[in-house]
Amino acid sequence: MSALRDYFGFESRSQLAAFITALASSEIPGKFAYVGESAKAYNAHALTKEYSQVTRSTASESALLPAVWGEDLAEIRTLVDVGPGNGLHSVGVLQQVAAATNWLPGGYLGVDYSSHMAALALDNVQRAFPGFQVSSVQFDIESTFAPGPSPLSNVAESLYFLLGNTIGNVESMARAIRGIRSLAGRGARLLIGCALLEERHGPEKFLQPYRMKTYVDCVLRPLVMIGVPRRSLEFDLAFDPEARVISSLARFNAGFRADILDKSVIVAAGSTVRCALSRRFLPGEVPDLLKQWDVAVLGMAEDAPNGHGTYCAVL
To answer: CATH number of the domain at 51-196+281-314, please?
Structure first.
């Protein structure tokens, strides 16, 4: 806990510095909503009934996995969970796959920018599967993985999960695919989830989950951690229908100034800071995008009415 106190609730000096740099540009990546003390806020959000309804895609994910790889699952020893959240989504998928196929990996590796988020995932996975060997790697998927001593296993013996809408919540999908390839290596198996646009509904239908108090607390928490009074922040959402991007916004009703890491952090009253983004995809769009980045989709299940897409792919 001393490190959190030293760095305003962030996990390291470099994490705090990256956040301050992002704040100065008024565009904060959503990954900061899960670091350090923010991990607790995210976990509270992830445990709500409303959140589970938004991520109710375990049935299609657990069905597609054996349908595509079948007997090949037997050679997979390690599940690598990229952006695992609190791990309960992956637990649900694994439990359903195990019930249908009797297959489970023996090891679990959580990969996240937040070591605190990865620790939550490891605890939940270990509780669900006491025999698993669990470990974690701290890694920002929009960067390049530096090879070195790590618990990463052989590509042929690994399966990579990118569930929920991890692939749609990054700043750059192309950069994220490059980062995952640097981590996993060519030939790695991927199970990817995404959020599809429910075209029959108006924007308010898919904006509604982002208005949940637990989500708002999660997204604004990093600003509060550096000393911004919560009462001076107003939360808002913006939807770009052409890009199909939802932006979570913090509007400063009062100015803020603080000296952090020998820098003067200044935000003027009336400023708007984007705190996270989330993309929605059209049916069939994700396979086309992945093909551009040399990722082959072997199987897919798209449930457009419920807003979920699932893809088995190979890097």
So the answer is: 3.40.50.150
